[in-house]
Amino acid sequence: MVKDDILLYLELSCNIHLDIRQNRKSIFNIYTLLVFLDKYFKGVFTQPMIEDMKLIFSKVCDNVESKLSEFDEEHDHVNLLINYQPKVSISS
C-alpha cells in the first residue's frame, strides 16, 4: 500500500508517468549509460556486428533482471541505456 501511494505521489507531483520499477523491498528508477568504442575511432562496427551486439546485450540484461531501454549505434561507437535493479553491481 505504501509503495502504491509513493508511486501515485511521484506521478502526480512530476505530472508525468515515470518508469518506476519495484520489487519486494524497494522502489527504484536507476539508469546507466554505457558507451562502447573501438580503440582508434576507425569505424569498425558493421551492421551485422551491431545487430549481434544488440541481441547479446538484451540477453545479458534479461539474465540480470535489467532492461535495455535504448540502443543507439554509430559506425564508431554504441550507446546502451540500461535500467537496472539496485542489487545489480555495474562495476563487477
Describe the structure.
With 92 residues, the protein is of the alpha+beta class. It is built from 2 helices and 5 strands. A hairpin with a 3-residue loop joins strand 4 and strand 5. It is elongated, with a radius of gyration of 17 Å.
* Strand order in the largest sheet: 3-5-4
SS field, number of helical segments: 2
Low-confidence stretches: none
Helix content: 25-40%
- What is the helix/strand order? HEEEHEE
Determine the N-to-C terminus distance: 34 Å
Do you know the CATH architecture? 2-Layer Sandwich
Please, what is the average pLDDT?
Answer: 78
Query: What is the domain tally?
Result: 1
In terms of quaternary structure, what is this? Answer: single chain
Strand content: 25-35%
